[in-house]
Amino acid sequence: MRTRPKHIALFGNFGSNNLGNEASLKAMLDFIRRARPHTKVTCVCYGPDRARAEHDVPAIPIKLALPEIWWFAIVNRLLAGLPLRLTDFVRALYLARKFDLFIVPGTGILDDFSERWQGLPFDLFKWSVAAKLNRRPFALVSVGAGPIHHPVSRWLMVLAARLAIYRSYRDDISKNFVRTVGLLTQDDLVFPDLVFNLRAPNSPHSGIQNGRSPVIGVGVMDYYGWDSGSKRRSQIHETYVGGLTQFICWLLEHGYRVRLLLGELSDKQSFDEVVQRVTLQCGSRAAALLLAEPAHSLEDLMYQIGETELIVATRFHNIVAALMMGRSAISVGYADKNSVLLAEVGLGAFCQTIEEFDAERLIAQFEEVFHGRDQFSDRIRNAMPEFRRRLERQEAYLLENLL
């Protein structure tokens, strides 16, 4: 007879500024607390203090901080960080034995967006190996995967994924990606993003229903390219922010109100930059129609989206939040995950990439989606119950085989 785990570690980039990551953690916590109320859960993450405060869960740091010992700091620097990484691995090896099961709940954990190999790729590798050496199962649940550009990051992340006893992905492109980098995926499954299992807030009335000008949501990301060291950082950012500003000014000039949307608190710099540019280019009168209060949780974000007719967004979980609220979305994205998700609800044609962002094309896409928004919303609302049914099937599998 299988022994149920008494202590589960939830591993990932949590306690962070990313609203989608925090919602993914919440979705898994809600499931475990509902289905296994007596099971102890600890979060292994980058922001343990915030995770404890926001989710009421015990939490430990994902990595060891550099000790405040002068000679260790010198030796560590001379040896390119190797002493700290070895010490950190020994710590993970010791701590891993305290848990019965490791779960990575959702998020795009298997990509290297703005990551050096010494960051999340190494930390994922370190903990998966520590779990394996302690004979503790390691599971990847509804995760996103790819791309992974750096060869060392790819090697570390693929090995970590190979050590998992259970792997499921939030879309087919993630499963296809890990197959192309050498994993056998015939037993791996595809289920929707975990966040779709959260309860959406009641939708407020839109502006049109209240006899006011329609509100359009525009998500803003602090984006400078996939690689944090790209020489084209400034050019990419200017193309993106400049295009968004042009689009927002067009909306304001044509009588729409605009609600700016945040998906991560670190996007605030670009968020403020767009507000300043719109004020300069459109004038303070038009800018008065711009709503720009940042959300601090995915629930806040969904409520803001509920005030809109549709949204234009870059971050994946902005798109997820829109669909959960029954709103159409247009993607100006940096990876294929947005377009793949939107294709499931008939909006796959209304996507473009940041690097090739064309504001005039976005205006044309917007006009088509806006005029057909009722039909698109019906299709979205019809799709959501099936997303949740598929997630329920995954929960049943996890309860029978892991939890």
UniProtKB/TrEMBL annotation:
GO MF annotations, alphabetized: transferase activity
InterPro entries recorded: Polysacch_pyruvyl_Trfase
Keyword terms, alphabetized: Transferase
Pfam families: PS_pyruv_trans
Residues in Polysaccharide pyruvyl transferase domain copies: 18-334
Name used for this protein in its record: Polysaccharide pyruvyl transferase family protein WcaK
Organism from which the protein derives: Bradyrhizobium erythrophlei
